[in-house]
Amino acid sequence: MDSSPTFVIVGAGLAGAKAAQTLREEGFAGRVILLGEEPERPYERPPLSKGLLLGSTPRRDVYVHDAGWYEANDVDLRTATRVTGIDREAHQVVLADGERLGYDKLLLAAGSTPRRLDVPGADLDGVLYLRTLADSDRIAEAVTDQAHLVVIGAGWIGLEIAAAARRHGAAVTVVETAELPLQRVLGDEVARVFADLHRDHGVTFHFGVGVRQLRGTGRVSSVLLTDGTELAADTVVVGVGIQPNVQLAEAAGLKVDNGIVTDARLLTSDPHIHAAGDVANALHPLLHRHIRVEHWANALNGGPAAARSMLGQQVEYTRLPYFFSDQYDLGMEYSGWVAPDGYDQVVFRGDPAVVHGRAPEFLAFWVSEGRVLAGMNANVWDVTDQIQALVRAGHAGRAVDLARLADPGVPLGDLLR
User: Fold this and answer.
1) Residues 6+ apart with CB under 8 A from 1
2) DSSP strand pairing (322-327 vs 260-262)
3) Would you say 104 and 14 are in contact if contact means Cβ atoms under 8 Å apart?
4) Quick one: angle between helices 183-200 and 156-167, nearest 10?
5) Do strands 148-152 and 219-225 pair parallel, antiparallel, or not at all (unpaired)?
6) Which of 69, 100, 349, 369 is deepest in the core (most CB within 10 A)?
């Protein structure tokens, strides 16, 4: 009888795939079972709203590993497989077909699901969401020249889809309940940059309104807003946020609060179960609070950290939240974490103004009492390490000279000397 340990990973996305890879790289010789609901092998999601939608990224490039990697590394990858329960007492996961798989350690990396629009007509054809490869394919087919696209939600996904659709020649209207795009994430000062950029590329915004109804016969043909405006639409893409897939954890009695609650080791309230990626609300040692991060880098780095923790290594997951976006000719990276009301000013290095549709080059720093809590570089490259050093110092309580912070002539590395 085989007595080697079995590690089961629920969720065959980036976090789960990188966890499986790390287990093998760290010398784990036991059984690794990777379970995913989608029919595809693990892939990365950023291209779905960026390069894949634009047509600049070949489909083969979105996958985490080559097709033969899983067999070659003795990883039992099971796609199109749904987990319906966790029996913590028996140390088993239950599959939809009734099969039970025993585990010594379990990693929950099941990701998240787009929030659904709850209005009349939301079930019409042509109302799309973006989460999977198949979703990206459907949107790409719809956002052709002369199409009329309405995007509901001016978050990262909504704006990236809007930019890709404009590149394909579609007419694009974005509806947002806030007064600016990305307002809650970036604040007014930087949010205006994105509003100006999209307007200069022909996007129409409707701010401060919601959706009352989607209209059409069989297929959506218009969007009725709460202020009475009616927008023509061939296709509607909804991007109003995501919900962590915590159903399994809740049913199993794990601690859940805006995600599966973990400590800094990514260990849940059960000593045999870890969580990583979108679904984990993890204690961050530097920030001294639990945070749930929905971005690519958290899956990329959180999966390996969880794997090492499962192996009993001394792990503290201290990566700063990081994300990136590409919209038209603007490429940006953001590092750090700050609450919407947690800063007293934004310090710019460079001019953030959009001029004749051309994206600016600048840095922005969210500052509280002289401490840098987050930073963003827009069309300025190879500064992420320096920005993250400033952010780490800021969250540790160290202030910097704000005049020097704003001065492009002062190297970022000199601010902490």
Assistant:
1) none
2) unpaired
3) no
4) 10
5) unpaired
6) 349
How many domains, in total, are found in the chain?
A: 3
pTM of the model: 0.95
Shared domain check, 248 and 272: yes
What is residue 415's DSSP assignment? G
Give exposure, 29-49, as e/b (b: 16+ Cβ within 10 Å): eebbbbbbbbeebbbbbbbbb
CA–CA separation, 232 vs 147, rounded Å? 10
Whole-number average pLDDT of the chain: 96
The answer to whether the CB of 148 falls within 8 A of the CB of 230 is: no
Query: Residue 409: how many CB atoms within 10 A of its CB?
Result: 6
pLDDT of 278-294, one tens digit each?
999 999 999 999 999 99
The span from the CA of 355 to the CA of 141, in Å, is 32
Check whether residue 123 and residue 226 sit in a common domain.
Answer: yes
User: Are residues 45 and 127 part of one domain?
Assistant: no
- Written as one letter, the residue type at 357 is G
Spatial CA neighbour of 135 closest among 109, 111, 161, 154: 161
Same domain, 79 and 142: no
| Structure confidence by residue, pLDDT tens digits, 118-134 | 999 999 999 999 999 99
Give the pairing type, strands 204-207 and 171-176.
Answer: parallel
Whether residue 212 contacts residue 226, with contact meaning beta carbons closer than 8 Å, is answered with: yes
Cβ-based burial of 203 (10 A; exposed 0-12, middle 13-18, buried ≥19) = buried
Can you tell me which residue has the tokens 């969007």? 223
* Residue 2: predicted pLDDT: 56
Continuous segment of H or E residues that includes residue 299:
helix 296-310
DSSP, collapsed to helix, strand or coil, labels residue 70 as helix
Give the separation between CA 12 and CA 9, rounded to whole angstroms. 8
Of 390, 393, 398, the closest CA to residue 349 belongs to 390
List strand residue ranges (DSSP E) for 12-147, in order: 31-35, 75-78, 83-87, 92-95, 100-102, 105-108, 112-114, 127-129
Instruction: Give the whole-angstrom CA distance, residue 201 versus residue 167.
Output: 9
Identify the CATH number of the domain in which residue 196 sits: 3.50.50.60
Q: Which residues contact 203 (CB under 8 A, 6 or more apart)?
A: 162, 166, 172, 173, 174
| One-letter identity of residue 221 | S
In a domain, 377, yes or no: yes
Phi, psi of 269 (to 5 degrees): -70, -5
Cα–Cα distance measured from residue 202 to residue 166, given in angstroms and rounded to the nearest whole number: 8
